[in-house]
Amino acid sequence: MTKIIIAILALVLAPIAGALISGVDRRVTAWLQSRYGPPILQPFYDVLKLLGKEPMVTNTWQALCAYVYVVGAALSVVLLFTGSDLLLIFFVLTVGAVFLVMGALASPSPYSQIGGQRELLQMLAYEPLLILVFAAIAMVTGSFKVSAVFELSRPMLYDIPLMFIVLGYALTIKLRKSPFDISACHHAHQELVRGVYTEYSGPYLAMIEIAHWYEVILVLGLCGLFWSTSVVGMIVLVVLTYLAEIIVDNVTARLTWRWMLKSAVGMGVVLTIINMLWLYAQ
Amino acid sequence: MLGNMINKGRIKSPWVVHFDCGSCNGCDIEVLACLTPIYDIERFGIINVGNPKHADVLLVTGTVNQRNKHVLKNIYDQMPGPKAVIAIGACGCSGGVFREAYNVVGGVDQVIPVDVYVPGCPARPEAIIDGVVAALEKVKTLLGMTA
Q: Which of A258, B17, B29, B34 is most open to solvent, judged by the fewest CB atoms within 10 Å of its CB?
């Protein structure tokens, strides 16, 4: 029964929290660029407006893909907060992401096609990192269950600090933040006019935006797991990680996909090997 | 209630797409100047998007001619409603000094319906921001909103 209540709470509160975080993100970014910036509630206004627009699709497959993406993201958040299996969360998340790519590839527009290909490359970069992080968590806790993390007597960060950096890498790619915003970017200069989102408009774009809020909460929740012993520690860790993300977003230029793949997978594998050897030596 | 919230969103987040019908680039630079930290139109929720499918407001600069009027119409048709069009600069409003040329159609309103005209050669960024605000006022009256 408590699980059902937690699931419903996660389903309702996660997008609200995600939107507030994006609002704060835009405000902090504006502050770093010595601007005033939009109101904190701006993401809500954007999505409400998009929901009220005329629905336009190039084909019905796209609309289905947008719905599957939002369901996948929401389901993975629910699974995380009910203490489910990390691998299951990973697969559900991946199915959602694959449907986003399929929606982009369903249209013959070259922008959308290139955006879809680049999104696939981004997935190729962050998915192995996520699996490595999950494997490391399983090595520490002895189980893939999220609930097992909360039974630990000391924070995981002491045992697998390097894996936290690897997760940070995956987080930057998953949140589509610079230097990895190669598949979709909404900044003034747009080489791909938003790449993978090009062919989505109106309510379907709103769906994708809501799915993105869920994903923000999911990845930040995964970061929070690294300090599972105290609520304050969790919040401090998540806030610091997100601030670091915003600063990295603002001080770096975009990488090419080759650089992204090389640096993400290379760094991830090296750090994982060092951390795993250290775990064994302990 | 949801309708009210959606209307509030419409007022608070006008995403603009910018199309240059072949001007001297003066008005385009002024449009882009609105995005810089000096004017910072993002504080009103305005984002410059590169994609007509995501946009609510179409900013048109430059003289419309027989060649690019099809492109302009196409971009306008790709925008999902509700949408607004703002013609910027003397050329966008009427054709400007090129009005009498054989290949020039005239103002933007010869091709698509225009909601707000922003005169000037080039139009100042303040005037462009005023133009977007005027378009929003028009939207407000259409939606029957008071505040």
A: A258
HEC-encoded secondary structure of chain A: CHHHHHHHHHHHHHHHHHHHHHHHHHHHHHHHCCCCCCCCCHHHHHHHHHHCCCCCCCCHHHHHHHHHHHHHHHHHHHHHHCCCEHHHHHHHHHHHHHHHHHHHHCCCCHHHHHHHHHHHHHHHHHHHHHHHHHHHHHHHHCCCEHHHHCCCCCCHHHCCHHHHHHHHHHHHHHCCCCCCCCCCCCCCCCCCCCHHHCCCCHHHHHHHHHHHHHHHHHHHHHHHHHHCCCHHHHHHHHHHHHHHHHHHHHHCCCCCHHHHHHHHHHHHHHHHHHHHHHHHHC
ipTM attached to this prediction? 0.87
- Convert the pLDDT of each residue in A194-252 to its tens digit: 778 888 888 999 999 999 999 999 989 999 988 888 889 899 999 999 999 899 888 88
- Cβ pair B54:A35 closer than 8 A: no
Q: Does B82 touch chain A (CB under 8 A)?
A: yes
Residues B66-81: pLDDT tens digits? 988 999 999 999 998 7
User: pTM of the full predicted structure?
Assistant: 0.90
Each residue's pLDDT tens digit, A4-39: 898 888 889 999 999 999 999 999 989 998 888 899
